[in-house]
Amino acid sequence: MNKKKKTEALIGEELLKKVKELGSLSKEEKARACGYYTITKNGVERVNMMKFLNALIDAEGIKLDGKQNGNGRGGRSASYRIAVQSNYNLLIGSAYTKQMNLKPGDEFKISIGRKHIHLTQVEADAVDSESEES
After folding, report:
1. pLDDT truncated to tens, each residue of the chain (134 aa)?
2. Are 60 and 16 in contact (CB under 8 A)?
3. CATH number at residue 118
4. Contact 108, 122 (CB under 8 A)
5. Which domain of life does the protein's organism represent (predicted)?
6. Residue 26 class from Cβ within 10 Å (0-12 exposed, 13-18 middle, 19+ buried)?
7. Which residues is 107 bridged to in the sheet?
8. Dist. CA 23–CA 134, nearest whole Å
9. Cβ–Cβ < 8 Å for 47, 55
10. Can you tell me the distance from the alpha carbon of 100 to that of 35, in angstroms, rounded to the nearest whole number?
């Protein structure tokens, strides 16, 4: 039987250097040459592309895991700027409402200045007393 000894998978700078040396080879051939393969019980060689690509990402110093902008999920971060939409509405996105811990149904009083809009949160008990007076 042809027993091939598996080489240790390269990481970091060694991995980057080896991938550059392998130039025109396919991704699978590069992964195999860098040690990212396994040999099954039946002696079949399987290239582990996910481990190889993740190792390349790590070697490049790219951080894909971890919290982004404190909200824990991807998506957009608050830019603190909004634009009037084509239907003349202003949309305040979820990045802002989550940051303020707002819940559906929270109400605000709108004050309009010359070049600004000011929102003041209406307390729940104040809303209840206003609705009772009506």
Report:
1. 445 556 689 998 999 999 999 988 999 999 999 999 999 899 999 999 999 999 998 888 887 765 444 444 455 666 778 888 889 888 888 878 888 888 888 999 999 988 888 889 998 655 555 555 55
2. yes
3. 2.10.260
4. yes
5. Bacteria
6. exposed
7. 122
8. 77
9. no
10. 49
Note down the domain range covering 26.
12-59
Domain count, the chain: 2
| 99 and 131 housed in the same domain | yes
Q: Which amino acid, residue 81?
A: R
Rg of the chain over Cα atoms, rounded to whole angstroms, equals 28
64: in domain: no
CA distance 126 to 71: 31
Task: Please tell me the distance from the alpha carbon of residue 67 to that of residue 30, in angstroms, as a whole number.
Answer: 31
Asked whether the whole model's pTM tops 0.85, one would answer no
Written in H, E and C, the secondary structure of 77-125 is CCCCCCCCCCCCCCCCCHHHHHHCCCCCCCEEEEEECCCCEEEEEECHH
